[in-house]
Amino acid sequence: MSITLDSPLDMHLHLRDENMLSTVAPLSAKTFSGAIIMPNLVPPISTKDELLAYKSRILEATKGHTFKPYMTLFFKPTYTKEFLESVRDELTAIKLYPAGITTNSEGGVAGFDVEELRPTLTAMSELDIPLCVHGETNGFVMDREAEFVSIYEMLATNFPKLKIIMEHITTKESVEALDKFENLYATITLHHLLITLDDVAGGMLQPHLFCKPIAKRPQDREALRRVAFKAHPKVMFGSDSAPHPQHAKESCGCAAGVFTAPIAIQVLTELFTQYSTIENLQAFLSGNAQNIYSNIEIPKKTIVLEKEAFLVPNKYGDVVPIYAGETIKYSIIERKEI
Amino acid sequence: MSITLDSPLDMHLHLRDENMLSTVAPLSAKTFSGAIIMPNLVPPISTKDELLAYKSRILEATKGHTFKPYMTLFFKPTYTKEFLESVRDELTAIKLYPAGITTNSEGGVAGFDVEELRPTLTAMSELDIPLCVHGETNGFVMDREAEFVSIYEMLATNFPKLKIIMEHITTKESVEALDKFENLYATITLHHLLITLDDVAGGMLQPHLFCKPIAKRPQDREALRRVAFKAHPKVMFGSDSAPHPQHAKESCGCAAGVFTAPIAIQVLTELFTQYSTIENLQAFLSGNAQNIYSNIEIPKKTIVLEKEAFLVPNKYGDVVPIYAGETIKYSIIERKEI
């Protein structure tokens, strides 16, 4: 039996820049039709010129593939409506980082003063630009996301026409928030469907599974699985695949991020099959995102998978992927790009 | 102003064997009068011959210092009263590990069937041999110690004459258990007085702060500090200083353990001074242990500290200590051994 998936989308992806971009971008472009590209370069993407230049570099790195990079800006409360109008056609979303919360987020939002944010968020509502949010406070590491839910609620209430995407959710509290506010959506990563803190720090410490937000409790993973496996219409796949060179992961002071892009579709297929919900994978991996991001152009691409062992490489370039050196159960046996 | 401490004791110490033993044992022997030596070698110390041979190797490695290794056996429910009597004079305590819970604990206790344990624990009660316990279940990493409290209660209730030491406690639940059962005691490490999970995984991942039990929440650290700083008579210092070669810490699959032995007394002095409880350090570091382990022989040693910056080496041998390359506030300026 083969499984055919149409136009897979990765609604949260880190491609970085320069050599790393050249290494990782083709790995996503091979199998995904498009991806929301995170803007947290150094410095972050915050002008139209930077956005267009980064887009060109991505297109160059993915040449030969049918792949659409959905570009984002790094949120600043100083963006005016005029500026946003000028960049609207090139922009799919804006990503908000609380200051200092994760890799390259130093220039993010400090404090959440609704009046300071109001002009930009109102303009985004009017221009139908979704707001993607890394939702963590600077509290205790296991509580940061649950504590942030009140900020999501504040944003959702004050800007009811703004589409707010809770990125890479990891807790039952975030899952519960989804159904409370019409304008809240979420992405879910592959690794947060797979692991809990036990996998990161319960046995030996596993730096390649260390990410932000950190993996939580079994009950949290259960809540994520519940909405992902039924393809709850407000959730979509976003890998948050985040490459770091091996030395930055296996060292004193390991960087946050799990690299999943090259095998995400295969492992999602295994997982959804294992839980007898494979019929919902198409919606989780593409359909829901198409509905939520209603005005994006989606290249046609078809991926065919079969249950055939695949040995995951130890490295892609200098990046160690999840399941490095292990065998996963599904392989992509055909890719059709139009 | 100088601070003088008499006969410091480390009531939970890993010295390992061979080259590692030669590297780390003198670092403890320089400043401590004695230490409870953990038996989890490969294979674990479980016969009189092994115990005596290990003791000789330790004495050889600490030659020139006034230092008493308090020897332990690795708990087995097959130890008979006869065997324990034969080894009593050489033995200070027996250490119980739940199977597979930490470094070299594979041969530990699986399940806690009180009737299976009864003969050995009854004999230990009669011979006044304390039971040291690594108290973690195999549950979710943040819950393991709190879940184990019910096992401590079962042991304390069934064996009221047995001295039970809850080793390296990390949670408020364990602190609360201390006052519920007359025969429960505890050791507290330096690192659990210093760090929470935020320090291990809240920013970059810090493999040198990864240990078992893993550091917990701020409220848990607070509970530990409360009893340590007032030198609650049932708690005593046990460093759980656990050396690993650098490559075993900074790699994919990092071993658990924080190496604190060489600077433990200095940092404890800083911490107790900072919290205005320096008058209680002598009891925490020696007096309480002398009362709890009532029949141990304690070599006389005097350590004098002053507030004088000390640059912690990047490594001792191939082992990276806590605060490597950083400056701590207190230095040992004099050691008197008799």
Question: Which keywords apply here?
Answer:
homodimer, 338 residues, 35% helix, three-stranded antiparallel beta sheet, 12 helices
Topology:
The structure is a homodimer of 338-residue chains.
Chain A (H helix, E strand, L loop, with lengths): L1 E5 L2 E5 L4 H14 L2 E4 L10 H14 L6 E3 L1 E3 L6 H7 L5 E4 L17 H13 L4 E3 L10 H15 L5 E3 L5 H7 L5 E5 L2 H4 L2 H5 L16 H12 L5 E3 L8 H4 L14 H11 L6 H12 L8 E11 L15 E11 L1
Parallel strand pairs in A: 2-3, 3-4, 5-6, 6-7, 7-8, 8-9, 9-10
Antiparallel strand pairs in A: 1-11, 11-12
Helix pairs in contact in A: 5-6
Task: Name the shape of chain A in a single word.
Answer: globular
How does CATH name the architecture of chain A?
Alpha-Beta Barrel
Oligomer: homodimer
The largest contact between protein chains, plus residue counts on each side, is:
A-B, 27 and 27 residues
Which percent band covers the strand fraction of chain A?
Answer: 15-25%
Radius of gyration of chain A from the CA trace?
Answer: 19 Å
Number of helices of chain A: 12
CATH superfamily of chain A: Metal-dependent hydrolases
